[in-house]
Design goal:
Layout: H1 2-37, E1 43-44, E2 47-48, H2 51-106, H3 124-132, H4 136-187, H5 194-207, H6 214-238
Antiparallel strand pairs: 1-2
Helix pairs in contact: 1-2, 1-3, 2-4, 4-5, 4-6, 5-6
Amino acid sequence: MKLRFILSCTALALMGTGAALAGAQAGLQAAREAVNADPLRLWSGGRADTAAADLLRKQAAGLTARIAELDRVRSQARRRIDGLNAAVAAARSARADAVTAWHRAAQRITALPPLPPDIAEPPLDSLAALAAAGRWPALATELDRCDSALAAAVRQTEDCERSAASGLANRDELRGLLGAYKAKAARLGVAEDADLVASYDQARDLLWSAPCDLTVAASAVAGYQRAINATTTREGGRR
């Protein structure tokens, strides 16, 4: 509805400019007919006075260019506003997916970044008002602003979704490292050392708790690795 209003405003501007063009063309035609009827009509002071006809031609050329520009703005406005609406719909769908992923990750890990902002509706009322006033440069500027704001919101949505996925991937990587370190301890024959068992259990409890504090868990896994190295060195020294 609002898009049709914007386009109708442009159509009215085209009609007004077209009427002015028709008037200028009619004036030129009348001048031609007058000269054809009386070839000496414009002769004065030894030369033909074409000032009026030249002015009409200049007006007609300017009006023709104005009509072309208004028509370009009309078609561009339709394309850009349709594109903005489609982009907003796609961004809202993507945000819904990102919010779902964020909530899923928040149940498993801590310290996630905040949710991405809501995707605002395009300001069709203000766009319609600019079109109604014939403020085409301002309309183009406002559309540029809408495109930029939407692009920023989309980037925030993508960053949020990546952070959630990255957090879960980091947790899984830490789980894998803990398992690898335990296997190393078993190969070295120190897996049953009481201190190592306590260190392992602490790291495992952190990694399999929900939500998991990745910073604390990463420190616990690193501590288990250091404990394995220290125990291996100690046991080797005893032998």
